[in-house]
Amino acid sequence: RKQTTEYSTSSSDDEFESKPSLTHKAKRTLRRRRKLEKETKQLIKQEELKRLHKAQAIQRQLEELEERQRALEIFGVKLERELRGESDSGTKDETQMLHEWFELVLEKNKLMRYESELLIIAQELELEDHQSRLEQKLREKMAIDDSLKDEMDLNEEDEI
């Protein structure tokens, strides 16, 4: 009897010891998963901040560009009046005024190309942001066990 009791106690002790090791492994795995999720969220947040700073820089450049275009427009109107003889400044030679006019047109075209480039970059940032949000949403959907999802959730996951 004593041996049987000791045997059963020792086997139940073994079971008891093995269960905590399983829960310890599960806890460790859960901690790793949480740590990975936290790191992923931090990376996503950093990427969002980078995109935000780029977008703000682009917005500032677009505002500066708009001011330069307005100044060129004002100068162009003045130059055009001089070329037509509507202005009283007869001191400038017509060929020099035409040269200034063409330089003005070239500068304006250059600014318009630059504006187009900035707008494309801004659109690219918007698309990157949209993609990042969709990836995050998909990660959240995929983290849920399939048995807990209804048909609408599965369809939404497929759509994403």
Automatic annotation (TrEMBL):
Organism field: Rynchops niger
Family matches, as PROSITE patterns: BMERB (PS51848)
Encoding gene per record: Micalcl
Residue span of region Disordered: 1-32
BMERB domain ranges (all copies): 45-160
PANTHER family according to UniProt: [F-ACTIN]-MONOOXYGENASE MICAL2, CALPONIN HOMOLOGY DOMAIN-CONTAINING PROTEIN DDB_G0272472-RELATED
Annotated Pfam families: bMERB_dom
Record field: compositional bias (Basic residues): 22-32
Comp. bias intervals (Low complexity): 1-11
Name of this chain's protein: MICLK protein
Superkingdom of the organism of origin: Eukaryota
